[in-house]
Amino acid sequence: MSKGLLHHIEIYVSDLNRSIEFWGWFLEELGYNAFQEWENGRSWKLEDTYIVFVQTEEQFLDVPYHRCRVGLNHLAFYAESRQHVDAITKKLEDIGINMLYTDNYPFAGGKDHYAVYFEDPDRIKVELVAP
Q1: pTM above 0.90, yes or no
Q2: In what order do the strands lie in the sheet with 115-119?
């Protein structure tokens, strides 16, 4: 393994089934494969990196996630191309995902940054950017 590469990310979610439905198709579109499955969690893997989603225990659901609080702001993934960003954007819109910065699509991140921004079921911001 190369020093410093990301091994895995683990995200606690408010509704595991909703998160599986949302993240499953998106990660598979990016080349991830289903990796692990257990009663309270699911993961997807791409090469040596995997992403894990775990159901938050009821006692910790009283404070919802917000990206402006301390902690994770967003996850950004590379797309294959600008055409891939556009295709995923269309799919996201078709299934009713909450899109962000639509007035500035696809350059909300700057004139040389071709990307789409959207939210997962817990309102975690996700970015898909063309290389």
Answers
A1: yes
A2: 74-78, 125-129, 115-119, 99-100
